Amino acid sequence: MIGIKFLEKLYEEIGGIAKIDYARHLRAGKPEAVLAEFKDPEDVVKIVKGYIRHSDSVLITRCMEEHVRALREAFENHKLIVNEKGRTVIVRKNGTKVEKIGKVAILTAGTADIPVAEEASLTAEYLGLEVLKFYDVGVAGIHRLIEPLKKICEVDVDALIVVAGMEGALPSVIAGLVDIPVIAVPTSVGYGAYFGGLTPLFAMLQSCSSGVAVVNIDNGFGAAVFASLIAKRKE
């Protein structure tokens, strides 16, 4: 049993608004990220400043323009990697090197799914994964999968992140063709009865192909974290 006094020392309180879990990567194999959505820009900056005292880099997800602006101003002496489409930002100390731990391929059914895929992409890069991207290869034109799957098999990726809205069929199709773990990400993309992403979520949970794990709607971040854990265990 881990001592309570030991655990007490593994976070830092920031101005009564947050407790930085800076040792999460030691305990759980994955670092803490900062969710910017629903937070004031100045609070996000305070939290990131607290975190960067204990780490070489920090990932911020679901950023709006005002969050990005505030981060650029506050961390002008750091390296900022901004993915506008994925609404994600990495704040990194200059000279920081990222150890590569594996490879992940990210596929989307359609172009409208790309923002969620880009959140997964920058998260995966932050966690040390080499990322291959294959966008707009959904089942409406299933022949588009041939070249991506050939490439994926050639380079020996550790996991696949498959992002789809509408009826959410793509992860099940891919899982029936490859011997690689498939992480399915339903998106809130579709017409009428897609119910904000519930339709693809339920379809993915009912996948006829085995070997499919499903994360929550639009959760590209969670999919990338899962892929990094697979890669670390494989390594």
Q: What does the model show?
A:
This protein is α/β, with parallel strands linked by helices and 235 residues long. It has 2 domains: 89 residues, no CATH class; 133 residues, Rossmann fold, CATH 3.40.50. It contains 9 helices and 11 strands. The strands form 3 sheets. The protein has a 5-stranded parallel β-sheet with strand order 8-7-9-10-11. The protein has a 4-stranded mixed β-sheet with strand order 3-4-6-5, with helices on both faces. A two-stranded antiparallel sheet has the order 1-2. Helix 5 packs parallel to helix 9. The protein is globular and about 50 Å long. The mean pLDDT is 91.
Tell me the number of strands.
11
Question: Which class of secondary structure composition applies to the elements?
Answer: alpha/beta
Number of domains: 2
Corresponding CATH architecture of the largest domain: 3-Layer(aba) Sandwich
Number of helices: 9
Give the topology string: H per helix, E per strand.
HEEHEHEHEEEHEHEHEHEH
CATH class group of the largest domain: Alpha Beta
Biggest sheet record: 5 strands, parallel
CATH topology tier name of the largest domain? Rossmann fold
Mean pLDDT: 91
Termini separation: 27 Å
Portion in strands:
15-25%
C-alpha Rg (nearest Å): 19 Å
What's the shape? globular
**What is the topology, as strand order, of the major beta sheet?**
8-7-9-10-11
What share of residues is helical? 25-40%
Brief summary:
With 235 residues, this protein is of the alpha/beta class.
Topology:
Layout: H1 4-8, E1 12-14, E2 18-20, H2 24-28, E3 34-35, H3 41-52, E4 57-61, H4 65-74, E5 79-83, E6 88-92, E7 102-108, H5 114-126, E8 129-134, H6 146-155, E9 159-164, H7 170-175, E10 182-186, H8 198-205, E11 212-214, H9 220-234
Parallel strand pairs: 3-4, 7-8, 7-9, 9-10, 10-11
Antiparallel strand pairs: 1-2, 4-6, 5-6
Helix pairs in contact: 3-4, 5-9
